[in-house]
Amino acid sequence: MSTRAASPPAVLSPRCKGFKKIDRSVIKRMFKQGKSDAQIAEKLNTSSGTICGIRTKELGLYKVHKPLTKGQKAEILLLVEQGYKDSVIGGMLGLGKNTVSRIRRGAGILRHHKNLMIDRAEVKRLWEEGKDDGEIAETMGFSIGSIRNVRVNDLNIHKSKVKIHRDVVTRLFHEGYTDHEISEHLGCAVTSLRAVRRELRSKTR
Fold first, then answer.
1. Spatial contact of 80 and 53, defined as CB atoms under 8 Å apart
2. In the chain, at which residue ranges do the beta strands (DSSP E only) sit?
3. d(CA 124, CA 130)
4. What is the rounded CA–CA span in Å between residue 104 and residue 93?
């Protein structure tokens, strides 16, 4: 008759042990003081998700969302105009990121916050001077993606209208840039760039 070895007793993971050791009274006290889950979690050296679970499932404590005042909404929009991210604004004002996003969208500000600071008239002027997305981005101190977003979505200048400067393509190619890197710099499609490179190769034969 064979005997099976007894299974070793279950061992709680350090996380489970830590979960049981979390002081519920501290959670309750700090929650009543208006502290966020993140602040309570930092105090108790755990995650905000763990605090949220204990708060709602064990302690039955739920957040009551009070309507924002006109002053709070104005402060949010002011910070948005200054270029701060929704998450940063939320941290500064003690609000959730989603709350800030809702106020921002309600004010009709739908694009990325950095794009709000880009002078559209300047982008158009530089574009009409023959500069590409990369050159405009470098001149104005923004990313190529931000400039391209403004060009396409705000100024309605699409890739089909992009002027691919042959001399720039040649220079960047000889400097070791890839087709993808050159197309991103010029703000054109990779296929369009490759067509230009084929054209240039045929002329040198």
1. no
2. none
3. 10
4. 14
- Give the model confidence (pLDDT) of 21-77 as tens digits: 889 999 999 988 888 888 898 888 888 788 888 988 888 888 766 788 888 889 988
Distance CA 7, CA 93 (A): 53
The 10s digit of each residue's pLDDT in 79-119 is 877 767 777 787 777 777 888 888 888 887 765 545 557 88
Type of residue found at 17 = K
d(CA 31, CA 63): 9
- Residue identified by tokens 């034969």 is 205
- DSSP-derived 3-state class of residue 203: helix
Of all helices (H) and strands (E), which one includes residue 204? helix 190-204
Separation CA 23–CA 162 (nearest Å): 62
Digit-coded pLDDT (tens) for 11-21: 333 344 467 78
The whole-model pTM stands at 0.32
Picking from 193, 166, 165, 159, the residue whose alpha carbon sits closest to that of residue 179 is: 193
DSSP string, 4-47: PPPPPPP---HHHHHHHHS-HHHHHHHHHTT--HHHHHHHHTS-
- Cα 187 from Cα 137, distance rounded (Å): 11
